[in-house]
């Protein structure tokens, strides 16, 4: 039997691998490390793997911009699911090292940045050593590296490498989190769960002050809320913008379907990047007048009027 | 064979009768004069007549407010057609009367008001005599009334009564016009012509500054233009308002149907008063992205996305 | 001493006279009856009178359209106050007449229309006689007219004419009311009371679906509510519209002043027809963030930012 | 004399240093390398340096998210200027190396990602070696590193290190660019140039579908265009969002000042991050009715109305 193949930002030990493991049973998939997000997504497009797991928002490992732009350009890809992980490191060291012994800490520069205040408080004299990845820093430590006594590692990696955890929950911002998505080639959309997101890219027809408002009215007129919007300068048309959007709801729901139709009709490009269960699990808020029943009732009413039934 | 019966604001000779004659061949209908607009509309509701022709906008004979309110309250009625007539009188007198002989002019007070400047210019010394209707003034003149030598009459009435026309095209405002509608009981809506109007009454959910905006966004999101909007204080709920609206387009067109559905879903009361050919005959302006084809294409696109076709 | 002169729609006994008496002490003014609303307003413009009292909304005596159009065109006029009177008649007759004796009832056709259901219930067999005005019908009755035994008259008129009141509070709709305004030549605006209205006429820059929305956003962006909006076909430009608007608030309040400025900047014509105490006396609702203090605080904040104070 | 001190993302040789050099004459400043964006901004807040130059949009070196979040939180900082640099590398090697000799290329992982397709085309067999920074890769090469024969370096760095340029203009996307800003402590805002940007962070009052629309209406009602908008999950309030916005125009211009006042009044938090010359140099588009003269004229009009001048 062939296991489904998942590309992820490697090497083993990254936060992205942790996201992958939060989504699937590792015994049921073949995990394929990729050097970067673009390579992971290209592997899906090329059919080398079935899926990729990539960071898409608020990441400590970069790549968000690349993810959004790469998803929207090229052969169609869709998001099939998401998971949100807290940004939290473990300070790891070789067995026998005490926290007082640490004079230098290694990590990817983003990891060091995320823990800057913690390090200043707890290891005020320690030198910061920038590594090519957090996993690489921990791996070199396990193999006897001598330039530093400790590393910041994603939770669990230290234990797998035989290192000791000097401190857990290391992070400057207890609420910081990274959002990861599972991406695949388009197939039938996953069934709605009642707590879904729909991800889109929209190019506006022009850059008037009112054009963005009119685009958002297509959502508001159907009571669809957004959970994310980002303008992106269009590399193909300097001075113009596209908008990357997460909207709450599922394409199978009438209010989202009608909003999508409205966007499609009135904007030059609308790229659908999937409807999928939201990581929060919170049911989509339904404004009065926007439930599936409200749409059915309104449609039946118009049908009746056309036949003279008032 | 039974002719269709049409109620109109009588007596014979009113502008409303002229509107009726502009809509139908008089040999094919039975015209039934009514004392006022409410009576005419009640006769349709009661089945005493098949249709009524009533003034609905910018009238010289009053009744607009009554028309709008009466259409919206009670058993359903729908507008089936409209005609717009210029507001223009003839100054009529008994044969042999010269304009210099006129010392008093009779008409309904609204008719006098519409021609005030003309009368001041051309008959500066003449007394104005208020009659119960323009037709009554002309009729009394034909029958030998002595209190006035001339009357303001709708075009054609003088000739029918054996009076002479001293001046035609009498009006202070050369562009003033009255809009009349043909009203019936609900049946299948008349087929779209490409130059149609849809008349509605909408009650807003609340009186926030934004509620009117949100109601109008239901039209704007589908590119539907309005040709008339009037707030009307709700007699049943002091301090609240309903809105009487003419929108350009037909309920059989997707953009109007979707706008109606949106209104229905998000407002407590939406009363449909008909889709019918616009008197202007100007084709409905179609904003890019709002044609029937645009709606079909967008619907097919969403259907495709649901099955994984991008 | 010269008393201020007030024109009103005469003759004595009209609802408009009742409105005038509700606004001023009759011993302190000189009341000048006018044949119609246009004449009354022209008298103000010409300086023949100081003020006019005219019906502006939902009237039983017609003239609303004329009032709105005439206010907006010609030498500037402003509204200085308003009063709202219930639409309610008295059924009056000569002394000794019992309601059972009434076989015919006279009134202006609008008055008959307003009481049609009441008459059908209480005087089912009576003939309706259309008079040139309600006051005229009652006057003729007092002078011995023989074609009818009763008349519908504004409250109080019967008593002044020596007639008996057979029934009071006659009206089909217990909530119906007419709004009257006091109009004068522009001077300093009356001081704000906290419960004011501002009346405007606005011509839109074009007839796109979005142009009306953008005009209303000028109000919404400052939290200003509307209590009335009516589109009016422009007689000078067929196919274009002007909007007659009552907004809640006073031009001396920052949020109304800023909304007016916004309208002025973005529309070809904005005519200010006055800020004046609202008849309801209800304090203007103040949306959070739109009080005079909020405007002051925001202005000071921007001034501080310009100097580097954050 | 003391030179102004500028922090930047070091070490020497980064794109951020190139941005700094594009903004100032290096002989007139003291450039202070920082380990990351947070450290650079903290140095401004602490007074250790006068200014920082940091990437803020579309960067190849990460840190955008950190920049936006860090600017908005903590002691006030403002943006004083911006520069946009193309994303373009040089492939550098030790003198005597031919491009055919290259079996391994080193760079920061983001640099490798930005040039992935170029490398696949031109150096299809070469191994990619991830370094801690682009500058570090080039530096190690200059010092005789043996694991790779070439490095991707920001333009000019190779020459300074005595390396040869094997290829210039290396980039997958010829239009890709990074935006850098100069940040300082608040002082008087730089004078308007007619081609300015204003950067803001806004927290919405609630998460209704309409709240974002209402916020954007504050801009649209004054004709202010946006060049960037990004929602950012609020780490302090999960499920709520703030919006990072670049608007075209300057706080000294009436239309921007009034928009800022409107935002301030109607949203719980508005953080002003500066008005400064836009890198494009394109004059701000001025919608009809939104020039400074239009604001002055409208203000004078309202003042006149208050005194009875129409």
From TrEMBL, chains A, B, C, D:
<keyword id="KW-0057">Aromatic amino acid biosynthesis</keyword>
<dbReference type="Pfam" id="PF01842">
    <property type="entry name" value="ACT"/>
</dbReference>
<keyword id="KW-0456">Lyase</keyword>
<keyword id="KW-0028">Amino-acid biosynthesis</keyword>
<feature type="domain" description="ACT">
    <location>
        <begin position="200"/>
        <end position="277"/>
    </location>
</feature>
<feature type="domain" description="Prephenate dehydratase">
    <location>
        <begin position="5"/>
        <end position="185"/>
    </location>
</feature>
<dbReference type="InterPro" id="IPR018528">
    <property type="entry name" value="Preph_deHydtase_CS"/>
</dbReference>
<comment type="pathway">
    <text>Amino-acid biosynthesis; L-phenylalanine biosynthesis; phenylpyruvate from prephenate: step 1/1.</text>
</comment>
<dbReference type="Pfam" id="PF00800">
    <property type="entry name" value="PDT"/>
</dbReference>
<dbReference type="InterPro" id="IPR001086">
    <property type="entry name" value="Preph_deHydtase"/>
</dbReference>
<dbReference type="InterPro" id="IPR008242">
    <property type="entry name" value="Chor_mutase/pphenate_deHydtase"/>
</dbReference>
<dbReference type="InterPro" id="IPR045865">
    <property type="entry name" value="ACT-like_dom_sf"/>
</dbReference>
<protein>
    <recommendedName>
        <fullName>Prephenate dehydratase</fullName>
        <ecNumber>4.2.1.51</ecNumber>
    </recommendedName>
</protein>
<keyword id="KW-0584">Phenylalanine biosynthesis</keyword>
<dbReference type="InterPro" id="IPR002912">
    <property type="entry name" value="ACT_dom"/>
</dbReference>
